[in-house]
Amino acid sequence: MKTIRIFDTTLRDGEQMPGVSLPPVYKVQIARALDRLGVDVIEAGFPAISKGEFDAVKEISSLGLNSEICGLARIVKEDIDSAIDAGVDMIHVFTPTSKIQVEHTIKISREEIIDKSVECVEYVKSHGLKCMFSAMDATRTEFEYLEKIYKAVEGAGVDIINIPDTVGVATPFKFYELVKKLREDIKVMLDVHCHNDFGLAVANSYVAVMAGADEVQVTVNGVGERAGNASLEQVVMILHSLEGIKTNIKTELLFDTSKLVERLTGVKMPPNTPIIGENAFSHESGIHAHGVIKEASTFEPGVLKPEMVGHRRRIVIGKHAGRHQIKKILEDAGYTVDDETLNKIFEKVKEMGDKGKRVTDRDLFTITEIMLGELKREEKVITVDEITVITGNKITPTAVINAEVLGERKVTSAIGVGPVDASLKAVMQLVGGVMHIREFRLDAISGGSDAIAEVYVTVEDDQGNIFTSRGAAQDIVMASFDAVINAANYLLLIRRKKGGL
Ligand code: KIV
Ligand code: ZN
């Protein structure tokens, strides 16, 4: 069975997402991550659009990555020259082909479009480069014209023909038929580029492979124009896990790559996003969690395991939690509770859940410790004596913490993009860099400039311990600081209980 090629366009179509603009250093960082991930092609950008874009594509082309580097160009010689000068391995030449796009955008005859496309493909090939050709809006282009232009560029020596569903209107049955029909006519490699306007980008990419496509264009986290492109993670795992179809992707790097793109693009994935979302392998309901604790595949697909994509399974607490799951979370954190205490904790958790509260690990452990009579007040291994945070115009936000950590006096300082970032970085330093913040959510729970800010955080350490906590204050910095320092305190306690300090 053939290996399906993965053409990643996070740095080109992904960057066209409203609100996303990647400085060259971020582009290079993402390109390196995509290369490690094993994508076959990185579409690094559209070199002709700006000097910054040209420089970024040039730099990525010079990195000596294993992935082929591709640059986008219209059917315009200057665009192609710009991509050649940027040192790419492949040029992706595109032109509108549907009546509506031709009439309102390119304004030349459809015969001229074919002639120009042929000339451009020949021009790219004469420079010894690989060439991909896209008939933009292919799914709204009459089949006869589409076939004609594709056959013409195939005759001109194109290497790959792309079928874009530019405005995401294809449906899986129709798209399957279209790709199959073109597959019968076209000998060179076929590739598809699906947009997600109706939420069908992944399904359409999948059926295209089943219809004979050799390559799929995807983006990490599905970022892209409007509703985005087909998500790399989802397409790859559908092929691997559900169809046994190979790609060159190192799937265990998917979660980390997704997080990097999330951080650098600023586009946060909802928790219920398949494969890489925070909840993709989290279980709260008692029945599910009980099953999963015994045998994970009772309430997970089985053919998709968190470790396959570099993710983690989590049993979380909430009003749907069962006794087994609470016991397991407590045991994992080093607490031993008898059945009577467990029942009391269980009731308390339900009560909090019924009041609409998200129950954090910190809440659960505090309840447990009170029930066990271990604590009259929270045990502390971190005692903060002073925290100073400065910010302002032309001042780099800086935080300084003076604290006792596990009996040792420590003073740490950090700078950040803002006062919250600086203070959280200073806390991470305080605990010796063994933790990182996995999730951070800030909500205003009352209106006005004096609103109470509630911060919810998930902190993870290098031993895989995860802890959720919350902080609330009118001062956003202090609410954030409180949530994170408490999470760090508990993680150190858990490490000490487990003998991992
Ligand atoms: O959506 C689209 O048609 C594109 C082309 C440039 C392939 O992004
Ligand atoms: Zn696109």
Reported by name, the CATH topology of the largest domain is: TIM Barrel
Give helix % range. Answer: 25-40%
The main pleated sheet reads as: 8 strands, parallel, barrel
List segments where confidence is low: pLDDT < 50 over at least 5 consecutive residues: none
How much is the radius of gyration in Å?
27 Å
Number of domains: 3
> What's the name of the CATH homologous superfamily of the largest domain?
Aldolase class I
Distance between the termini: 49 Å
**Could you give the order of strands across the largest sheet?**
1-2-3-4-5-6-7-8
Query: What is the CATH architecture annotation of the largest domain?
Result: Alpha-Beta Barrel
How much is the average pLDDT? Answer: 93
What molecules are bound to this protein?
Answer: 3-methyl-2-oxobutanoic acid, zinc ion
User: What's the number of extended β-strand segments?
Assistant: 16
What's the shape? Answer: elongated
How many helices in DSSP terms? Answer: 16
